[in-house]
Amino acid sequence: MGKTEDGARAFRVPLHWLFILAGATSGIAFGILSVGLPVYALKLGASAAETGFLRAATGLGMLIAVLPAGMAVDRFGVRRVFFLASAANAASVALCALAASPETLAFAMMGEAFTRAFVFAALASAFLHALPLIGLHRAGWNKAAISLGISFFGPFLGGALMWGLPFGGVFAIAAVMMCSANLPLRFIPVPEAAQREEHRRSIASRFAERRASLASLFRSPGVPTCLAAETLLTAVFASFATFIVVLAVTERGLAAMEAAWIAGVEGAAYIATSFFAGTWIQRFAFPVALGVGTAVIVPSLAGLAFAEGFLLLFVFATTLGLGIGLLTLVVTMRAGTLPGAKGEISSLFMTATGLGGMVGPAFAGAIAAAFGTPAVFLSFMPLFVALLAVTAIRARAPRISSLIPSEEK
Question: Which CATH class, in words, describes the domain spanning 2-200?
Answer without folding.
Answer: mainly alpha
